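Appendix B, example 12.
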Amino acid sequence: MSTWDEPLRGALGGSARAFKDKLGLHTLGDLLRYYPRRYDRRGDLTDLATLAEGEDATVQARVLDAKRRTIPARQGRRRMDMLEATVTDGTGRLHLTFFNRGAYHQTSLVPGRLAMFSGRVSTYRGRRQLDHPEYQLLDEDGQEGERARAYAEELIPVYPAVKGLDSARIAVGVEMALARTADLPDPLPPQVRDRYGLLGIGEAMRKIHQPSDWPDVGAARKRLKWDEAFVLQIALARRRRLAEDLPAKPRPGAVGGILDAFDAGLPFTLTDGQREVGASLAERLDAAHPMHCLLQGDVGAGKTLVALRAMLRVVDSGGQAVLLAPTEVLAQQHHRSIGAMLGPLARAGQIDGAERATRLALLTGSMGAAARREALLDAASGAAGIVVGTHALLEEHVTFADLGLVVVDEQHRFGVEQRDALREKAADGRPHVLVMTATPIPRTVAMTVYGDLDVVALTQMPSGRAGVATHVVPAREKPRHLARVWERIREEAAQGRQAFVVCPRIGDDDAGTAEEEVGEGPDGDGPGNRPPLAVLEVARRLTEGPLPDLNVEVLHGRMPPDDKDAVMRRFSGGETDVVVSTTVIEVGVDVPNATVMAIMDADRFGVSQLHQLRGRVGRGSLPGVCLLVTDAEEGSSARERLAAVAETSDGFALSRKDLELRREGDVLGAAQSGARSSLRMLTLLKDEELIGRAREEAAAHVAGDPELTGHPPLAQALDELLPEERAEYLDKA
């Protein structure tokens, strides 16, 4: 009986090495899942007299003559054996040219032999010809025409090829592998196949690689998409079930506690969406198994406020909460903003502290020894109900008295090991986990990448936000428009307002800069292959040129933490007019007086990142403007991205656009993990309904058979299509 993990050598013999070395294919399953990129036809059956140059054609003709000759070796080219043949169908003549294996072809193409020939028509020295055409010899049994038409209409799979292993050779290898599919174990349970009218796995493999017609291709793709969706959802359903089986301490809050005092002191009314999401989180925190929840929302929807109210509920229950941020700038910003929101409620033990209060601690890697000792003591003793920090929180010597809630900001910046490191710091069971993402996520991505988390969304924006107008500034095409950018910043500064200027890199040869400092756009070095604009250079040009009388400061990730914090304090306090920064200000920075953002080389950033960046302005009652400065040419894909950002402020709509512009593998981490994506057929946007059904079927299957013992081929498929490192990646995305 054949298996999916059977070494390729068993099916291909000695030729298996080429598939291993050039394509990274090791097993029968690897090769069978190396699907055609597209399908071609040989071309319509055509009379020789009507052939046109450049068309793909199939002709039925007799061989008139076939002659071999040798082309001498030349510098850089070895000697070649060549066969030239002439064929006719009675309406005209066509010349055929075969390079190498001339003796083999001459044996088949003898004068008078009837055959079909397929290829692209070209002209050489006034003669129409086919270079190295495919051909099939015909027997003269009176059915030549019918057979020729079928041959011409047959779908030919075209595979992603590499040097030394072309599509035709891959097709030969696949044909040998298909001979072993009759008894391959089918990973999809029979009841699922029957319910949705899906092909068996062997038939699906034959039809995807050797289809008779387009309906074959459609039926095979439907089945293989189900395999991918179902296996992914099985993995996520099992992860959800395991989480539900873990113990956690319920955190019911307390009447008249810090949360009630905080709500009573808010200078605004919570939106309906914030109340609904807050109630949903409260219900999950009350449970005796750990909450695993993803909180998403558009820029400015109030995610941090909702997370803070959940943290206060845990503090009121006698526990502690941790907020993990990816950068020191963001951690410090969270510490300042939460401290400002809580006021006396965060100053327990101090003269101006509230009667019922807690402490707020900050822990980062670059803190001084005395401040670090104090933060560690507050966390370990339980005096600090809320601890904000960076990766420093993950260190082994950091302990907590009663860790009840872990809030992870910008989840995609952390790995599964880091999230688990915090989970293990809970003394009594597992802590509740709330993951926040500032990038709205399409439903299908939420069902796959975040499928092991319960997803809650904030879709309602708080009132009083003036919003942001976004414009594309084509600096190369219209230099006057770039000059207008600096004029606009001067005008805003004259009214006491402030501005950001964002650049893709720091400068001073920063090729090794951390990922947080570099734009994520896909366009490489951009127009003219010049280096991206840099913070240090742009800041110098602005102070020497269009903004000489404004207070301009720089901010980037290589600055000492105290310096970064000082820059943000001065900017927040209104002392600085313009901050020229990298993307360290992408999330969490809240300066309501900032009204203008100019993003230089905006084409080097992704759609979602641009949306997050512009969310730093227009956060108060003053309207904001975001200017996307670019040298990208009109009509390019880069300009298409920028136009999409300028046309809408709806982050959920932009997230779908972002997904359309990116490869599926990137979405699920194949590029980052170094493995090929397990999604080869499934398209996250187009297959939303299928993914939803697969999720329901997987949940039902795992509920009845959590260990997958009732259908071993499914367990095997889980190991093969989603090995452990890929499964863990779903926690990282």
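The longest helix spans residues 214-245. The chain has 27 helices and 21 strands.
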